[in-house]
Amino acid sequence: xxxxxxxxxxxxxxxxxxxxxxxxxxxxxxxxxxxxxxxxxxxxxxxxxxxxxxxxxxxxxxxxxxxxxxxxxxxxxxxxxxxxxxxxxxxxxxxxxxxxxxxxxxxxxxxxxxxxxxxxxxxxxxxxxxxxxxxxxxxxxxxxxxxxxxxxxxxxxxxxxxxxxxxxxxxxxxxxxxxxxxxxxxxxxxxxxxxxxxxxxxxxxxxxxxxxxxxxxxxxxxxxxxxxxxxxxxxxxxxxxxxxxxxxxxxxxxxxxxxxxxxxxxxxxxxxxxxxxxxxxxxxxxxxxxxxxxxxxxxxxxxxxxxxxxxxxxxxxxxxxxxxxxxxxxxxxxxxxxxxxxxxxxxxxxxxxxxxxxxxxxxxxxxxxxxxxxxxxxxxxxxxxxxxxxxxxxxxxxxxxxxxxxxxxxxxx
Length: 413
Ligand code: EPU
Prior knowledge:
With about 425 residues, this protein is an alpha/beta fold. It has helices at about 20-25, 45-55, 80-85, 95-100, 120-130, 160-170, 185-195, 230-240, 255-265, 305-310, 330-335, 365-380, 390, 400-405; strands spanning about 1-5, 10-15, 35-40, 60-65, 65-70, 80, 105, 130-135, 140-145, 150-155, 175-180, 200-205, 210-215, 220-225, 245-250, 270-275, 275-280, 290, 315-320, 340-345, 345-350, 360, 380-385, 410. Strands 22-23-1-24 form a 4-stranded mixed beta sheet. Strands 2-15-17-16 form a 4-stranded mixed beta sheet, with helices on one face.
């Protein structure tokens, strides 16, 4: 429940990146030794991944934001439907399990609120490394009884978790793997850094070509996860949409360049008071167009939040979503609050600035719910967001963090 119309002021600290923590936890399955990961955000998707690792047979210990995984024995190299259906990123265990045990069984994810999201690219990569893949009763089975063999592989289209999955499988394959058209997201770089600490030999993560020299085995390591750039970006937009003055701390400004550029073009004043913080101040905003792209382009995970901002900017904004085919569910809910948005295929045309008023709305997915929270912060009156559990999948105590900078927000049963 949010009562809007108040400029936010103060500092908000971001946590570790959910989308780096998820593959990093899966990577722990590659060794029988202990891996200690720092700055793991205590969000729902991470709890699901920990449950999955425990199901597989790993010992998972959580203490003070750090998580220790010890996969001494793999009991069940599988990701069951019950876990995969609540979190698609469960498929990230596929590569590590085939690499470690020579077999894996992972439920097919099924539909998703933001698009089809198949895992065919993950499978093509694993097949190239010598895995035999088949499908049976809703499950994908991959086997490589004689281990995996390094090979060149070019992704048909860029996939973040696909790149991570194939990279994790290739680190213990025999010989060299070269992944072309690899995702360049900071999360891929972070997972590669962890794997290298575990004894892998990976070069080029963060570029389109990743070179991996297979090693016999990996060992334990300690690693701290990078800051969550999407959480940071969401708070920057919160500062802008409320015409406030917000400093986002413990973030990585380099990972947020595309967003900062668009915020600046829209008239916000963004500065970097220290190497790990960004301060935003905003008054009147003007509309700008954005097109989502793979990193270093504008992140699809910030599209919904930016759309909320464009409802409060003067002029017409054309928002083009190129990564997912159905990621505009928030537009209809924003319209219920008074936004003027027309959808045309992969484009949303937002006319602003409109006066938003509090309403009852429904969150359809993680980033859509963040967009509704932002709109509510700018709206007159009270907004009630239903199915807010979506937000807990990826944001740690968002209401407490926003309250800390003056938002009138509370969680009601
Ligand atoms: N795709 C395929 N086949 C595949 C894999 C992907 O066709 O085998 C398509 C997808 O359907 C999509 C496009 O390729 O149209 C790109 O998808 P990608 O594989 O890059 O997405 P992902 O790895 O499943 C990650 C994040 C998402 C984020 C996307 C894009 C994690 C755990 N998830 O998903 O995060 O939106 O990359 O940047 O890293 C979120 O945090 O809210 C979230 C959805």
